[in-house]
């Protein structure tokens, strides 16, 4: 299976459990890998046979910007579910990075994998 990916997708959203986090948007950074058979697209050079990663990006940006979750776990699982259910991919890996969430750590977040490669 081939992998189509989006890396370093930065989105502003309300996320967190503390009072200040409920009032101030924070940046989450997403890396998304999606299994997809690109053979026919490669053979035909026709976009109709591949995954429209711009459409995936637009959908996820709109969803995350409008979201209002307490936990990154919930947000990350919701993103994975959208990609699996709306874009017909058999497997997805979503890495959500909430930089600066822990003092002294450059990165903190969660990785969710769903489906089968």
Helical amount among residues, as a percent range? 25-40%
Structural class: alpha+beta
**What global shape is seen?**
elongated
- Report the portion of residues in β strands: 35-45%
Mean pLDDT: 95
Uncertain stretches: none
Order of helices and strands: EHEHHEHEE
Largest sheet: 5 strands, mixed
Q: Give the radius of gyration.
A: 15 Å
Query: What distance lies between the first and last C-alpha atoms, to the nearest angstrom?
Result: 6 Å
**Main sheet: which strands, in order across?**
3-1-2-4-5
Count of runs of 4 or more consecutive helical residues = 4
Quick structural overview:
This protein is 34% helix and 35% strand.
Provide structural commentary:
The protein is an alpha+beta fold. It contains 4 helices and 5 strands; from the N terminus they run βαβααβαββ. It has helices at 19-23, 39-44, 53-66, 72-86; strands at 2-15, 26-36, 68-69, 91-97, 109-115. It has a 5-stranded mixed sheet with strand order 3-1-2-4-5. The longest helix is centred in the last third of the chain and has 15 residues, at 72-86. The radius of gyration is 15 Å and the shape is elongated.
Structure characteristics:
about 120 residues; alpha+beta; five-stranded mixed beta sheet
């Amino acid at each position: 299976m081939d992998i189509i990916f989006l890396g370093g997708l930065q989105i502003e959203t309300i996320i967190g459990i503390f009072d200040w986090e409920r009032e101030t948007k924070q940046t989450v950074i997403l890396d998304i890998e999606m299994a997809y058979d690109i053979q026919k697209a490669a053979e035909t050079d026709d976009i109709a046979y591949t995954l429209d990663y711009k459409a995936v990006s637009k959908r996820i940006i709109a969803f995350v910007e409008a979201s209002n979750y307490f936990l990154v776990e919930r947000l990350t699982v919701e993103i994975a579910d959208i990609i699996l259910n709306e874009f017909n991919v058999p497997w997805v890996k979503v890495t959500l990075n909430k930089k600066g969430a822990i003092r002294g750590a450059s990165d903190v977040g969660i990785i969710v994998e769903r489906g089968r490669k």
